[in-house]
Amino acid sequence: MTTTPPRLTVDELAARAGVSVRTLRFYSGRGLLPPPELGPRRVGLYGPEHLERLELIEELQQQGLTLAAIERYLAGLPSDLSTLDLAIHRALVAAWTPESTEEASVEELARRVGRRLTDADLDRLVAMGALHRTEAPEAFRVEPALLRLGARILDLPIPLETLVAARAVVRLHSRATARELDRLFRESFWRPFRESGADPAEVDRMRELSTRIEPLLTQAVVTAFHRSLAEQLADRDGG
Q1: From the CB of residue 136, how many other CB atoms can be counted at a distance below 10 Å?
Q2: Do 93 and 138 touch, CB atoms closer than 8 A?
């Protein structure tokens, strides 16, 4: 015997999701949440699919995505996603979330890299993706894994526009690779899991598997890039 999932009022959904009612209404107005069902006395009622979508939005925000980027991400999802599908999405996003960014002042950044940072230095670190500007001119979001690497090449005579262009090339091709990997895992891994009728509680198993796969894929991409770069340099020198 199947049971109907409980329907929640907007206040109950806000409490379950840990956000304010005002935030829920804002998300709904931006199209991030599907409209509620209308219950007795035309009260809006929400279900598990709304809670799963809110949790997915939270995971994407923890990655550092802007609201506009989250809107584009959600707009790219099929309209008929089930609660299980959303739970799988959330598990994969959480498992493959990179190291969390943190915020630091210019003074704190200087202490961390061991040198005074000029405006030109900051511009170069932003171009490399090691820093991200915030609304406060003296505060930056930091990519910890890139900051020290970026600081080591600040004095190299590489024009700023070259750094910007190089980052754009890397991001373009990284996104293409990510899309193809996403398609591959959807067809060979996600779809069979979903069609097997798995219970949403089993999504934790997928999260664990994804966590194990991510380092392997990351290393494979890095290794392939190093090999391709070496081949390109060898071809250029040989030519």
Answers
A1: 9
A2: no
Give the 3-state secondary structure of 116-156: CCCHHHHHHHHHHCCEEECCCCCEEEECHHHHHHHHHCCCC
Q: Which two tokens stand for residue 102?
A: 């943190």
pLDDT at 145 over 50: yes
Strand residues in the chain grouped as ranges (E):
37-38, 44-45, 102-105, 131-133, 139-142
Amino acid identity of residue 146, one-letter, is: L
**Cβ-based burial of 124 (10 A; exposed 0-12, middle 13-18, buried ≥19):** buried
The fraction of the chain above a pLDDT of 70, given in percent, is 71
Alpha carbon 80 to its chain centroid, in Å, reads 22
Asked if 44 and 36 count as a contact pair (C-beta separation under 8 A), the reply is yes
User: Per-domain residue ranges for the chain?
Assistant: 1-77, 82-239
- Please give the radius of gyration of the chain, using alpha carbons only, rounded to the nearest integer: 22
Domain 1-77 has CATH 1.10.8.60: no
Mean pLDDT for the chain overall: 78
pLDDT for the residue 6: 67
Predicted TM-score (pTM) of the model is 0.50
